[in-house]
Structure formats: structure tokens, C-alpha cells
Design a protein that fits this description.
Layout lengths: L9 H8 L28 H19 L4 H12 L9 E3 L2 E8 L2 E9 L1 H6 L8 E5 H8 L3 E8 L6 E8 L5 E7 L4 E2 L5 E5 L2 E6 L2 E5 L15 E6 L8 E5 L6 E6 L8 E8 L2 E8 L2 E4 L7 E5 L2 E5 L4 E3 L2 E3 L4 E5 H5 L6 E4 L5 E8 L3 E8 L3 E7 L6 E5 L6 E6 L7 E7 L6 E6 L6 E5 L9 E9 L5 E9 L10 E4 L14 H6 L6 E5 L9 H5 L7 H16 L8 E6 L1 H12 L6 E5 L18 H4 L5 H7 L4 H4 L9 E6 L8 H13 L3 E6 L10 H19 L1
Parallel strand pairs: 34-35, 34-36, 36-37, 37-38, 38-39
Antiparallel strand pairs: 1-2, 2-3, 3-4, 5-6, 6-7, 7-8, 7-9, 10-11, 11-12, 12-13, 14-15, 15-16, 16-17, 18-19, 19-22, 20-21, 22-23, 24-25, 25-26, 26-27, 28-29, 29-30, 30-31, 32-33, 33-35
Helix pairs in contact: 3-15, 9-10
Organism: Pseudoduganella rivuli
GO cellular component, one term: cytosol
GO molecular function: oligopeptidase activity; serine-type endopeptidase activity
Length: 705
């Protein structure tokens, strides 16, 4: 068989993987026999950064020389900087707040308007008042500020906690902001850079989990200590409320803000999927008697419990994936007479729960298609109603103001239909469309199909394929297969102007896989690929690839794969295990060195997902899906384009760096680009995003056309 990487390369591909070989960055020098590239884990050392700069220079010059690169990049830039996007908002006090980026504000502005103006004006015509200009703040303070979010004290929201990161990482500073005078509060609450979790109790009290100094963080790098901080006192004087263990993932505290239900809670995350919850009452902490795999939260006088495993409580067994409700006071007194608000089946799973003033809104997936339910208690007993939604749309719900209103925003879109924002109300199917996103690409000649691949164990694996209506099933269609498959996250149909402009309009086929490890069918779908069963997700992904080939939608010379983070590891493993199936791989901010992943940044928090490589019995199976250890110099692999970010403080950039170094050493075709700004998302402004995806789609089109 002719190696796939040599087929149909053309002049451009020869530039990438042949003629340019002499321009490679120098091979990294060994550090130790066990891992010669350990030095690349030193994120900001000059040696490592110089290596990154050389790779960046090589990759940008080579991909930038591809035909169509500039046009693709410019088209993407038009999408990400468009002023016609929907300005999504959240209500704080009497205003709607929106964070907005465009060509004039690459770092973005926090702005606000009144509900009346927002609901009557077109997005570009609404009157916005600037609350915080992050570009100006960065210039004034000579800092690389990136917006990280806000938390306001309800209901008036006159005081908010603003979070800002340096370069886009997860660690952030916190500053108190006065929304009346539009200024930071002099002498107000303020925290230095850390992965803090801070929540209001009252105007003068916070529950704070942050870096309190040596020994105050977990092995995952998150806070394990929660304190109560009183205004006007130094952080060092804050009162200890709770202290978790170093082996935990994190600890945090928050307060209910429902009128008349001022309850405080502490959440101790003992692993990524387990937690203990404590009710802080009368100066004492009372542990809630719930399964540690379940999550719990309150709705007025009710306690809602979402199960990740079957639970025998009282005289009944409740199924994994269910949502239960009970009076909070009754539960704390020992009662277990739950009302079941949701119970899954083989095709249905609960995706999200949100609340309005008088209702609980549930979003579910039925064969990976959205539906919505609402539950109310008009006479002290729960009543259910199904909300009318489009048959194939991806739907999400966002309450307008859960303390004061039964209105909610409903956002709907699909692969071919731009997002639209509607105002709905509990109890009614009548909705008012407020905003809609423009069409960024011509979808008239496109169609969407849902198919099912058959996995090695006989399980039906759904996937969506977006293609031209007149597509010829001759195996010659450039096809991009995307996957994730972990942490119970669901891959759902959604509209992407970038994908449309850079791929679909050119005639490319896009495929979204719903492999096990995700949450498309609830906890059971996720647990099917945990730890020693991780190979299941790779087999599912490969089964989808083979199904595409069997249907002659595409063939190996025209099939590429892409994924990010855990998905970056997914596509790396798939390419290493079945290289003959693929002709291009894009692995974004991936995990790769699974022997050391738990020792880098937040890696220790993912042991429940992957396993513990320090245990020989667990390393035995982890090693079989550790890309860094699967590389074989005697095998032929498709070209891989790795991307990462220097400022990513979640998945360490050394994962991608070390893969590139080892692939280069072994003579495999590889490219690398590391954004020396940005966090786990890989880009912090429109220019960076356009450049990144301009390179990605140019690489894919050149390989697969």
C-alpha cells in the first residue's frame, strides 16, 4: 500500500513536509534518558520559548504560503469581528449587561442597556453604555488583561466582582466594582491572581476560596480552604469556614439569594465527579445525606438532586440520570419522599437545569435533539408541561431574572440556521424573537443527515454529516470529522460562521460524532469510556470514520480529523492507532503525555476520568492511550498540526510541545503553532482567532481536497 502521506501532496504539501525539511527548528537536546523533552515543561524558560518561536515562524510562513490562506483568514476575521452578531446579555439589577469584542475593541468592552431598549432595537442600534473598556484598562495599567467574568450582588447589582486574567489563563484577579459610579471601589474587595472562587453573602461579606499561601491549594492547584471575609478587614483576618484535603479537587462556598431563603452552602469536590455538600447553619456545617456522585442545589424551598448513579432512598430505587425534588426542610429532617422531575431512558438524557421565579426548566436530548420541559408548583404540587420547540434545533435556556421573573431567553440554532434569540414565558408557547444572527455563509445548497455507525461491541453511535445536497458518494469529498468523547459533555448541532466560510462553502463535508465518553445519552454514555474503558471512545470514533468510508461519503486520502483538549488526545490516538484511515490531523490544546498529565497544572483533577499513572495497574491501560508513548518511528502517520497556548493554565502546553519534539525526532510530518497569548481557548481576540483558524482550515483543505 502506498503511504497515505505521499499521495497527492502537490506543490503546497511538498513545501510543508518535503522541501522545507531543512528549515526545521533544531532538534531538542536530551535532558534525561526517560524523557529527553522534559525541559519543554518549563513554560516560560527562554530555551523553551525560543523553540516555540522557531516553530511558530516555520508554521506561519509555510501555512501562510498556501493558496487561499489570506482569503480564508480574511473571511474568518469578518465573522469574528462582525458587529451583526447577537449581543447576548445577562440581567443584573435594572440593566442588561453584554461583553462585546470587535475590530475596534479586540479585548472587549463590558457594556449595558435597559431591557426596553434591548428588546426593541436591532443589535447594532441599541444604546449601549460602556461600563468597562478592557483595552483601555490594559493600556492604562500596562497589563495584558483579558475579561474573565462578573458576579453581582442581587437584586440591585450595585456592587459586582470583576475578574480579569493576564493573557487569558484560568487564574484571575478579582476587583470590586461600583456599577452606579462605574469605577473600581477604592479599598474594596480585591484578590490577587489565583484560581479563586468568590461569592457574595451580603454587601459586606464574601465566602472566599483562594490561594491563602503555602499549603492552601489542592494537588490540582485549586483552593481547598473557604473563609468568610468581612469588608474593611484584611484577607489574612478572614474567618475559617471549611478546610478540605490536599488530595481533593477544590472547595468553595456560596449563599442562596432567594428572598426568605438565605442559606449558605459549602461544596467540597472530592474528585471531578464526586462532592460533599454542607449546609452552614447556626455556625455549624451539616453534611447533606446524598450520594457523593450526585449534585444538589436549591429552588426556593425545594432541594433538587441530580443523580449520576442509581440510588436507593427510602423505599424506592431512583435511576441514574434522574432529577429529584423534595422540600429542603423535610430532607434535612430525614424525609425521602422525592418527586421525580426527570427520568432518562435509552434515547433521552437530561442536559441542563435552570430556574425562573416560579419554574424549573429542563433541557433534554432525544437522540441528540433538544427538547424542553417546565415544572411548576401552582398549588404546592409539581406539574409538568412540554415546551414547543423546533424539531431539529439545538436549544438552550437562560432565565431573564430567576429572582423576579418567569421570562426566559431561548436560543436556537442548528448547523445551517444562524442563532436566534427569543423571549419566552413560563406557561406559554408564544415567544417573541428579539435578535437573530446573520447568515455568514450560503446554506441553500446544503443538507444535514444523521447516521449511526456500529461500534465494535454493536452499539449504535450517532453522528451528523453536513454536506452539499448534490454531493456525489464517490469517496472523493474532503471531509472533516470532529470528536470529543469525555467528561459527560455533549456534542450538539450548532451554527458556525467560521466552519461555513472556511470549509462548507468550499464543498467540504463536516461530521460531528457523538461517541461514548460524552453526555449525549447521560451518565451511562460517559461511564462506558471511563478509565480502563477509554479505548471505547477511540473505537467509536474510528467506527464513525469507517462508516463514512463505507458510505463513500469520503475515503482515507480525503478524510481529516480534529479535536481540542481531551478531543485533541482523541484524534492523536486515532491517528496513531489507525493511521491508514486519515490524511490530516488537527490536535488543539491536547493532552499527550499521560504518564505525567496529573503532575502538570490542573491534571490531577482528571484522575477520575483517565486513571492514576502512578499506580502500575492503571498505567497498564493508560499507556495504551498515551499519545506520547504510542509514537513509533517505524510507522507511517498522517501529518499532524498541533496547536497550543503558552498561557493555558489548564492543559499544559508541554503536552503538544513534547509530541511535536518526538515526532520531529522520529521523522514524522508535523507542524506546531503556539499562541504566546490566550488561555485554554487558544486565542483572546479576533486577529488571533482568524490567524489560528486560517492556518487550521488551510492546512486541512490542502491535505484533503
Amino acid at each position: 500500500m502506498i503511504p497515505i502521506r505521499t499521495m497527492g501532496l502537490g506543490m503546497a504539501a511538498a513545501l510543508l513536509f518535503g522541501a522545507a525539511a531543512h528549515a526545521q527548528p533544531p532538534a531538542p537536546a536530551p535532558v534525561s534518558e526517560s524523557d529527553p523533552y522534559l525541559w519543554l515543561e518549563d513554560v516560560s524558560s527562554e530555551r523553551a520559548l525560543d523553540w516555540v518561536r522557531q516553530w511558530n515562524s516555520r508554521t506561519t510562513s509555510q501555512l501562510g504560503a498556501l493558496p487561499g490562506f489570506r482569503q480564508t483568514t480574511d473571511a474568518i476575521r469578518e465573522v469574528v469581528d462582525s458587529r451583526e452578531r447577537i449581543p447576548y446579555v445577562e440581567k443584573q439589577g435594572k440593566y442588561f449587561y453584554n461583553f462585546w469584542k470587535d475590530a475596534d475593541h479586540p479585548r472587549g468592552v463590558l457594556r449595558r442597556t435597559t431591557p426596553e431598549r434591548y428588546m426593541t432595537d436591532a443589535p447594532q442600534g441599541a444604546h449601549w453604555e460602556v461600563v468597562l473598556d478592557v483595552d483601555r484598562l490594559a493600556r492604562d495599567e500596562n497589563e495584558n488583561w483579558v475579561w474573565h467574568g462578573m458576579d453581582c450582588l442581587k437584586p440591585q447589582a450595585e456592587r459586582c466582582l470583576f475578574s480579569l486574567t493576564r493573557g487569558g489563563g484560568d487564574a484571575h484577579v478579582v476587583r470590586e466594582f461600583d456599577t452606579r459610579g462605574l469605577h473600581f471601589v477604592a479599598g474594596g474587595f480585591s484578590l490577587p491572581e489565583a484560581k479563586s472562587d468568590v461569592n457574595w453573602v451580603s454587601r459586606d461579606r464574601l465566602l472566599v476560596a483562594t490561594d491563602f499561601g503555602p499549603g492552601s491549594l489542592t494537588s490540582s492547584g485549586y483552593p481547598r480552604i473557604v473563609k468568610e471575609w468581612q469588608r474593611g478587614t484584611p484577607l489574612q483576618a478572614a474567618k475559617l469556614v471549611f478546610e478540605g484535603q490536599p488530595a481533593d479537587i477544590s472547595a468553595s462556598g456560596y449563599a442562596d439569594q432567594y428572598p426568605g431563603f438565605n442559606r449558605e452552602f459549602i461544596v467540597r469536590s472530592t474528585s471531578f465527579f464526586t462532592n460533599d455538600m454542607y449546609y452552614r447553619h447556626g455556625g455549624k456545617l451539616v453534611k447533606l445525606d446524598k450520594p457523593n456522585s450526585a449534585t444538589a442545589f436549591t429552588f426556593k424551598d425545594q432541594l433538587l438532586i441530580r443523580l449520576r448513579a442509581d440510588w436507593q432512598a427510602g423505599n424506592r430505587r431512583y435511576l441514574q440520570g434522574s432529577l429529584l425534588s423534595i422540600a429542603f426542610s423535610g430532607f434535612m429532617a430525614g424525609k425521602r419522599d422525592f418527586t421525580v422531575l426527570y427520568e432518562p431512558d435509552a434515547t433521552r438524557s437530561l442536559q441542563s437545569v435552570s430556574t425562573t421565579k416560579n419554574a424549573v426548566l429542563l433541557t433534554e436530548l432525544v437522540n441528540v435533539r433538544s427538547q424542553v420541559q417546565e415544572w411548576r408548583m401552582p398549588k404546592g404540587k409539581w406539574e409538568r408541561r412540554t415546551v414547543s420547540t423546533p424539531a431539529y434545533a439545538n436549544v438552550s435556556i437562560s432565565p431573564l431574572d430567576y429572582l423576579e421573573s418567569d421570562d426566559y431567553f431561548l436560543i436556537q440554532n442548528d448547523f445551517l440556521t444562524p442563532a436566534s434569540l427569543h423571549l419566552g414565558q413560563v406557561g406559554s408557547d408564544q415567544r417573541r424573537q428579539l435578535k437573530s444572527q446573520p447568515s455568514f455563509f450560503d446554506a441553500a445548497g446544503l443538507k444535514v443527515e444523521q447516521h449511526f455507525a456500529i461500534a465494535s461491541d454493536g452499539t449504535r453511535i450517532p453522528y451528523f454529516a453536513v454536506m452539499r445536497k448534490d454531493v456525489k458518494f464517490d469517496g472523493n469529498n474532503p471531509t472533516l470529522l470532529y470528536g470529543y468523547g469525555g467528561f459527560e459533555l455533549s456534542m450538539k448541532p450548532s451554527y458556525s460562521g467560521i466552519l461555513g466560510r472556511a470549509w462548507l462553502e468550499k464543498g467540504g463535508v463536516y461530521v460531528l460524532s457523538n461517541i461514548r465518553g460524552g453526555g449525549e445519552f447521560g451518565p451511562r454514555w460517559h461511564e462506558a469510556a471511563l478509565k480502563e474503558k477509554r479505548q471505547v471512545s477511540y473505537d467509536d470514533f474510528i467506527a464513525v470514520a469507517e462508516d463514512l468510508i463505507t458510505r463513500k461519503i469520503t475515503s482515507p486520502p480525503h478524510l481529516g480529523i480534529m479535536g481540542g483538549s481531551l478531543g485533541g488526545m482523541l484524534v492523536s490516538v486515532a491517528a496513531l492507532q489507525r493511521p491508514e484511515l486519515f490524511n490530516a490531523v488537527v490536535s488543539q490544546v491536547p493532552l499527550a503525555d499521560m504518564k505525567r498529565y496529573h503532575r502538570m497544572l490542573a491534571g490531577a483533577s482528571w484522575i477520575d476520568e483517565y486513571g492514576d499513572p502512578d499506580r502500575p495497574d492503571e498505567w497498564a491501560y493508560i499507556s495504551r492511550y498515551s499519545p506520547y508513548h504510542l509514537l513509533d518511528k517505524t510507522r507511517t502517520y498522517p501529518p499532524v498540526f498541533f496547536t497550543s497556548s503558552t498561557r493555558d493554565d489548564r492543559v499544559h502546553p508541554a503536552h503538544a510541545r513534547k509530541m511535536v519534539a518526538r515526532m520531529q525526532e522520529q521523522g514524522h510530518p508535523v507542524l506546531y503553532w503556539e499562541n504566546m497569548d490566550g488561555g485554554h481557548g487558544g486565542a483572546v481576540n479576533g486577529e488571533q482567532q482568524a490567524r489560528l483558524y486560517g492556518m487550521v482550515y488551510s492546512f486541512l483543505w490542502d491535505r484533503l481536497k
